């Protein structure tokens, strides 16, 4: 039986990828519907400066470990936690949704990506119901009246589950707002996951993912934007590991 870990006072699910996808899909469209966030070092760094982001995480129904540092921090508590990234969740959730007749909504990215991804997902998953897609404009405010109208559209579509691809913290803030208005819909934050499917962004080769070097691939592709971000993550990492190691003794 898996036992969750606690990182930065957030409970991290120890379920492996396949079981996580089944759980998410089973709960979608019911009173057990949950927001699904994938925790990484960058999110922790952002949370320390953004209380709303942290509170959104605190209200999330399911948090997975996205990245080796989070998995390592969990292991310091004696917990075997698998890496479950947002991008990795899409395919098994979609497959399970098609099998269990759950409808999905795609929100974020841009219209080209959404249209192409929607077509590809339907081709690969017989019987899949995509209730709707929408790409908000640049500068979209996840707590605005426009956001509320988007949420109402998601609710009117009849979707059981919504993939949110806006990047952090915007996607988590939107999901948190949405969940209050649509308690029976599950919102799964997936970052660039739809862009990977559409081919507009290229994910790191599998061997780099296996060797926990995906961050290096991303940094090489956009050093101006990401190198400073990863530097902040590396500075924060020792403290995060130390706090994680203390959790069993504290509790």
Notes on the structure:
This protein has helices spanning 17-27, 41-47, 51-59, 68-75, 86-100, 111-124, 145-157, 170-181, 193-198, 206-210, 214-221, 223-250; strands spanning 5-7, 10-12, 35-39, 62-65, 103-108, 129-134, 161-165, 186-189. The protein is of the alpha/beta class and 251 residues long. It has a single domain, classed as Rossmann fold, CATH 3.40.50.10700. A 6-stranded parallel sheet has the order 4-3-8-7-5-6, with helices on both faces. Strand 5, helix 6 (111-124) and strand 6 form a beta-alpha-beta unit. It is globular. The model has no long low-confidence stretch (mean pLDDT 95).
* Gross geometry: globular
Structural class by SSE content: alpha/beta
Radius of gyration, taken over Cα atoms and rounded to an integer in Å: 17 Å
Strand content: 5-15%
| Average pLDDT over all residues | 95
| Count of DSSP H/I helices | 12
